[in-house]
Structure to design on (191 residues):
């Protein structure tokens, strides 16, 4: 058994949790989707589904944070950078057939009151995403306090807009949120 097997299990679990949530995803389904032996699941994740879920959240949010960092730092102006980041999310949601976006929303909502380990993984992931946005704003001259407030607003607005776009199968809400976040940041920079 290799770490490649472990990675396959995490990737499959991440995809399934994003598509159908924590409670609807079973271990047998993870094994089938990952095309790995059932024994591998228990070898790499002796604590079972909870451990897989926490690590899948960490993996998916690490990917999202890296992607956000790359996107947001392609444009100097923070308002335009955030606009572009959210606009590109709207395009990706279309390309993925409204099946992806908000990669940990389902699992975060399902487990936040019932599983501390997964809740903490979700909280750390969302904090990491906000840290990237906050750092961009601070580097652009915003105070730490204003940058933190704006970063939380952008992250929450984007996450909510992704959920609405997936549900309505329409990217317009993301595009509208992108435009509003741009205005909010431009206005905040003038105050």
């Amino acid at each position: 058994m290799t770490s490649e097997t472990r990675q396959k299990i995490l990737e499959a679990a991440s995809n399934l949790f994003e598509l159908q949530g924590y409670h609807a995803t079973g271990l047998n389904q993870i094994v089938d989707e990952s095309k790995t032996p059932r024994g591998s699941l228990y070898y790499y994740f002796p604590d079972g589904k909870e451990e897989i879920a926490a690590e899948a959240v960490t993996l998916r949010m690490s990917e999202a944070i890296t992607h956000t960092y790359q996107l947001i730092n392609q444009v100097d102006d923070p308002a335009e950078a955030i606009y572009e980041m959210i606009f590109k999310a709207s395009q990706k949601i279309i390309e993925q057939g409204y099946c992806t976006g908000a990669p940990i929303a389902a699992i975060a909502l399902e487990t936040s009151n019932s599983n501390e380990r997964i809740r903490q993984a979700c909280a750390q992931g969302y904090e990491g995403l906000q840290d990237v946005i906050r750092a961009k704003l601070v580097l652009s001259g915003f105070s730490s306090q204003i940058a933190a407030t704006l970063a939380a607003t952008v992250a929450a607005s984007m996450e909510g807009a992704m959920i609405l776009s997936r549900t309505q199968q329409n990217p317009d809400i993301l595009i509208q949120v992108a435009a509003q976040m741009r205005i909010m940041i431009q206005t905040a920079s003038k105050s």
The CA atoms of residues 71 and 88 lie 9 Å apart. The chain has a mean pLDDT of 93. The chain has nine helices and no strands. The chain has one domain: 3-190.
